[in-house]
């Protein structure tokens, strides 16, 4: 009833306006189609005019960049940005301060630009000092300690063929250094001495001290007594390996130790061997020298010992011949894995250029150079 009344009213309105119902319906459909086209056109315009989605830059580290990737979430295509490192990240490691650095020895300059904070070169025969740099300062000496260890073992005249066993007491729990000798490994005292001198084997040096009459405390006491007898007044030992930074000596003291140890052929031979094989408990192990110079044909080395711990830096003592002259070289607290070897080469070149007749003594203490 209501619908019929509305239809009659609508028809009357169309008649008054002069428009037929069919024309009105066509006009309505046209407007709807135009409206749809307008909406679609606006959407296209917006899509074309809208700028591409910018990658988020907020809080972006200079070492990072954003990579655009396409992902599908619940079946719908999505554009995502992923942070990636623009360059490999290297952790910043602060430089290790050695005992020499903390004492200010790194401020001492020298004409050879040595990388060692301490250096000393003396003539073996005359004890004449040829080069000196901070040589009276007592510093940690690391495995150079083993030179005194070998001297005490040799002078104790113990049975060198006696079998020694590596025990848990020989394991380094201070620096956590590695060793190729396992707990339970057995070697003769002679072999232990050989690899301790040549290859700085810590467990071998520990076993040597532990098997001294009275044990390690008596051995350390013998080390300090021997140092005093040699006039090494700036020297102090607390172990037989050098792993403790409390093992200290000055370059002048170490030069005396080198001269004393050189008197024993077994120490000369073992410290300068390039390679040596041992068989702990029947298993063959090949050891090599810790000093690459002993295998070089350019060097004539009669005795040597290297050492390294963080507090000591790289250390080297040796007796060698240069231009026919036997000289003792001591380098302590050197920076860089091969810096002590490089310093030895620079020193040899300088001594060769000076010549035995025109040699100038260089004495550096606290940054002041005295020549005479």
Automatic annotation (TrEMBL):
Q: SUPFAM superfamilies from the xrefs?
A: beta-lactamase/transpeptidase-like
Which keywords does UniProt give here?
Cell shape, Cell wall biogenesis/degradation, Hydrolase, Peptidoglycan synthesis, Signal
GO molecular function term, any single one = hydrolase activity
Residue intervals of the Peptidase S11 D-alanyl-D-alanine carboxypeptidase A N-terminal domain: 110-335
Quote the Pfam families the UniProt record gives. Peptidase_S11
Q: Signal peptide span per the entry?
A: 1-24
Hydrolase is among the record's keywords = yes
The record's top EC class is hydrolase
List its EC numbers. 3.4.21.-
Family, as annotated: Belongs to the peptidase S11 family.
NCBIfam families hit by this protein: PRK11669.1
The protein here is known as D-alanyl-D-alanine endopeptidase
This chain is encoded by the gene named: pbpG
């Amino acid at each position: 009833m209501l619908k019929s009344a509305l239809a009659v009213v609508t028809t009357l309105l169309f008649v008054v306006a002069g428009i037929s119902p069919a024309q009105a319906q066509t006009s309505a459909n046209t407007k709807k189609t135009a409206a749809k086209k307008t909406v679609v056109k606006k959407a296209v315009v917006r899509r074309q005019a809208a700028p591409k989605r910018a990658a988020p830059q907020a809080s972006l580290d200079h070492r990072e960049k954003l990579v655009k990737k396409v992902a599908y979430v619940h079946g719908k295509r999505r554009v995502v940005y992923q942070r990636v490192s623009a360059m490999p990240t290297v952790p910043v490691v602060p430089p290790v301060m050695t005992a020499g650095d903390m004492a200010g020895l790194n401020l001492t300059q020298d004409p050879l630009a040595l990388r060692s904070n301490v250096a000393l070169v003396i003539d073996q025969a005359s004890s004449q000092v040829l080069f000196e740099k901070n040589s009276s300062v007592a510093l940690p000496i690391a495995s150079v300690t083993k030179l005194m260890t070998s001297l005490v073992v040799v002078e104790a005249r113990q049975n060198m063929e006696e079998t020694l066993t590596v025990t848990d007491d020989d394991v380094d729990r201070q620096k956590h250094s590695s060793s190729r000798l396992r707990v339970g490994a057995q070697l003769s005292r002679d072999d232990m001495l050989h690899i301790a001198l040549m290859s700085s084997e810590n467990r071998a040096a520990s076993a040597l001290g532990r098997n001294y009459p009275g044990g390690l405390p008596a051995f350390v006491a013998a080390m300090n007594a021997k140092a005093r007898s040699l006039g090494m007044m700036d020297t102090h030992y607390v172990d037989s390996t050098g792993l403790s930074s409390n093992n200290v000596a000055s370059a002048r003291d170490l030069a005396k130790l080198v001269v004393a140890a050189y008197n024993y052929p077994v120490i000369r031979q073992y410290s300068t061997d390039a390679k040596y094989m041992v068989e702990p408990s029947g298993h063959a192990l090949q050891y090599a020298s810790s000093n690459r110079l002993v295998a070089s044909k350019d060097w004539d080395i009669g005795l040597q010992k290297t050492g390294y711990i963080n507090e000591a830096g790289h250390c080297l003592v040796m007796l060698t011949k240069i231009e026919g002259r036997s000289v003792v070289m001591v380098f302590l607290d050197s920076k860089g894995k091969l810096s002590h070897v490089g310093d030895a080469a620079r020193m040899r070149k300088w001594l060769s250029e000076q010549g035995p007749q025109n040699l100038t003594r260089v004495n550096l203490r606290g940054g002041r150079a005295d020549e005479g």
